[in-house]
Amino acid sequence: MQDYLELAEKNGITLIAKGSCQFCGANTQRGIHECLEIFALDLENMELHRKENQVYRFYLVDAHVLQHPEIHGRWSNHLHLARLHLIFNYKVNWYYHLTTQLSNCINKYKVGRQDEFLSPPDIHKRGKITSTDIVKAYSEKSDLMPLLKNWANEVYDAWEDSHKTVDGIATQFLNSGL
Ligand SMILES: [Zn+2]
Predict the structure, then answer these.
(1) Digitized pLDDT (tens) for each residue of the chain, 178 residues in all
(2) DSSP assignment of 64-132, as one string?
(3) Contacts of 52 (CB under 8 A, 6+ apart)
(4) Burial status of residue 60 (CB atoms within 10 A of its CB: 0-12, 13-18, 19 or more)
(5) Which residues is 30 bridged to in the sheet?
(6) 65 CA distance to ligand 1 centroid (A)?
(7) Where are the domains of the chain?
(8) 85 CA distance to ligand 1 centroid (A)?
(9) Residue 151 CA to ligand 1 centre (angstroms)
(10) How far, in Å, from the CA of 3 to the mean position of ligand 1?
(11) CB count in 10 Å sphere of residue 90
């Protein structure tokens, strides 16, 4: 996350540090910078170390990245959307080690596709749930699990135009000996 300032600059994006988030529309005071604070939440009470709960960490990361693709590298969108596609469309139970396998598939997929970009949905149309909803639920000690799943689901749906593209990666992944 530390290099997001650099990536935004590389992508020609000026980050706005006031008001609502320029990318996801979250009701923040300090824009994108506040959206990123979600990664500092202590989610250990969700027992994320338990194998059956690991997927919630991925919901959070994928939803966040895909709501803010402008501050990430272009292939990062492929990775996070392909992961959600595998989870939601192919019902893959996701665990940490599978991400390495997916990265390997994307590294192969990249070859000869230097010009391929996924077009993000319009800003503020990337799912209604945002980081501020998660922070609020967290501070109210509400159950975050269903909220994180819905967040990821909404963002995944917002990227519908790219589902077909990442399906190519997902198929490679599924055929790679899961
Ligand atoms: Zn945001």
Answers:
(1) 557 888 888 888 999 999 999 999 999 999 999 999 998 888 877 787 788 888 999 999 999 999 999 998 889 999 999 999 999 999 999 998 999 999 999 999 999 998 899 999 999 999 999 999 999 999 999 999 999 999 999 999 999 999 999 999 999 999 986 6
(2) HHHH-GGGS-HHHHHHHHHHHHHHHTS-----HHHHHHHHHHHHHHHTT-TT--PPPPPTT-S-S--HH
(3) none
(4) buried
(5) 19
(6) 9
(7) 4-174
(8) 22
(9) 13
(10) 16
(11) 13
User: What is the distance between the alpha carbons of residues 56 and 54, in angstroms, rounded to a whole number?
Assistant: 5
- 26 touches 34 (CB < 8 A): yes
Please state, in angstroms and as integers, the Cα–Cα distance from residue 39 to each residue in 24, 42, 90, 132, following that order. Answer: 16, 8, 27, 12
Closest CA to 26 of 75, 63, 1: 63
Say what the pTM is. Answer: 0.94
The amino acid present at 98, given as its one-letter code, is L
Query: How remote is the CA of residue 131 from the centroid of ligand 1, in Å?
Result: 7
Gap from CA of 176 to ligand 1 centroid (Å): 35
